[in-house]
Amino acid sequence: MSDVLVSARGLEVHFSVRSAGLRRGAGGVLRAVDGVDLDIHRGETLGLVGESGCGKSTLGNALLHLVPPTGGRITFDGADITSLDRRGLKEMRRRAGMVFQDPFASLDPRRTVAQTVAEPLEVHKLRSGRRERAARVGELLELVGLDPAVAGRYPHEFSGGQRQRVGIARALAGEPDFLVCDEAIASLDVSVQAQVLNLLRRLQRRLGLTLLFISHDLAAVRHLADRIAVMYLGRVVEMGPAAAVGSDPQMPYTQALLSAVPVPHPALERARKRIVLRGDVPSPSAVPSGCRFRTRCPYAFEPCPEVDPALQEVGAPGQLAACHLHGVVPVS
Amino acid sequence: MSAPVLDVEDLRVQLRTPRGTAHVVNGLTYSVGPGETVAVVGESGSGKSVSVLALLGLLPDRVATVSGRALLHGEDLLSMPPERLRQVRGPGAGMVFQDPMTSLNPVLTIGKQIVEGLRAHSDMSTAVARRRAAELLGEVGLPDPERVLDRYPHELSGGMRQRVVIAIALSNSPALLIADEATTALDVTVQAQIIDLVEQLQSDHGTGVIWITHDLGVVAGIADRVLVMYGGRCVEDGTVDDVLEHPVHPYTRGLLGSLPDLATPLGPDGEVPDLVTVPGLPPPPTDLPAGCVFWPRCPVRGDTRCETEQPPLVEIADGHSGHRGRELPHRAATWCAEAAHE
Lengths: 332, 342
Fold this sequence. Notes:
The structure holds 2 protein chains of 2 kinds. Chain A has a domain at about 250-330. Helix content of chain A is about 30%, strand content about 20%. Chain A contains 10 helices and 12 strands. Chain B is of the alpha/beta class. Chain B has 2 domains: about 5-90 and about 175-340, P-loop containing nucleotide triphosphate hydrolases (Rossmann fold), CATH 3.40.50.300; about 105-170, no CATH class. Chain B contains 11 helices and 12 strands. Chain B has helices at about 50-55, 80-90, 110-120, 125-140, 145-150, 160-170, 190-205, 215-220, 240-245, 250-255, 335-340; strands at about 5-15, 20-30, 35-40, 65-70, 75, 95, 175-180, 210-215, 225-230, 235-240, 315, 330. The relative contact order of chain B is 0.14. The chains are: A alpha/beta, B alpha/beta.
């Protein structure tokens, strides 16, 4: 059995966009995910960070085949998911769950918690008989720290944190190997965020889950992840062990991103040197030539506009960065 | 210390709701000096936003009852006639809201919206106001301000829109700037740009700032003073160093403990330690507990007074540190003896 559970090679998700509004001009191509190579190992938590619009959610969706990729290859446990038939895809979906960002929008308001959590059990025919299903729902609710007695209640009777627990219970119902959490704590209050973060970590260890934790919150990602991948404009630009990427980033974008995260210690925070980037992120429908970060990079030099940098090993063992400062290596 | 820009005394806000009267703000007292930044922190429902909306008369009269005093340069905002309040809002106090998409009018150009604010408070001609608007956009760091004037909000990125909102808030050089979760919806790199901008403007114009946020990292960087709100009360306040490095109230401690922090050292097993959490949820403002507002969730409750008597906000020990040359008291409202003696 290979150590890699989910793998992407040259993954592309491009959308064609029509010209906006009343403006003239031909439509273009929005390159949401643009050549991503990524391996997620069994039992690890991979944190995927990046700013809004960098394509991290689209990448998460593509890995579960919720959006069809327009190029490249995705394998799940060795099987190419783009060529799966309906039955294969259904089995893949059982083995890969998703926890969504907004617990107010991702639960059906007209279904009770029990109905919501039991749905995957019915779809995948995992428990036959009403009593067995109810028992399993109770187990799942207990697993995520909810009282099984709340099974008959509706989502509106719960707080945001409790709803997110229901969402996690639903995602776990199919006994998945792989769980994608897309900004799963972003809409929660700080003290509730901490409760959900601790829960995810406990579940991951107890069930041996492989987790893709997508977030813009670097501190939360460092807290949970074994490895971190950093995305910029549709591409993974740095990846490596969480400690290495978190304390000694090798790609100028990661350095700027980390330096912009405020820490709650006044003396440290005042002394901290922020790297303030110029300008805005370019549009994913007009990706710069060569290195996509060059338009905002403080170190841009000759090869940057010409050569698209490939990920190369730099820094700690297992750390990869796409930057010409470490030697010019073009994307093959 | 020179006279404060804003002096709030015993501010209380009650809202009528279908579930009864909500006691959203319950006796808030603080002041903001010129050039000073006061951070108001707390979780959703703690009353932090409502407390500033009340200051500017932005709560609907039909449902809100506001009492107390809020002196802006000696003039009480809460008892002011609406006409006068409207005059004060621009040059006296500017406000930046969380979501830059909903606080700009989508069907008016950026230029129109800035000119409107400028002309409401002076007899500038439209042409002069437009030139001033372009200057303002330049000041907040937008490239090519002349072109931005003719754009609509949807044509700008989130960071650019928030700069426009700040430009509008600053267009009449207010003595007080209120930022309500102004950078929460923005990415960290854009947040860093906006914070730099506000600090720059503050040192240029001596503007007093109230910065409402739940992000304690941001607070550590920008605040002189911190006020922690819970259940509509101030449970702890003091200099930023005192409150964040030597928190006394069990709630402040819980809030800091539940924060994943890039500066946390790894544990002996090479892993980041588990987060300390505050169990439970904040009380609904329609049904606040008697006694200390935090006692139902408090991990160290035990004093007989916790459940019955409301602890007053009192000075604890002596402030460990001043900030930027000022000595400020460190206060907390808790019966927790263990905390008070530390």
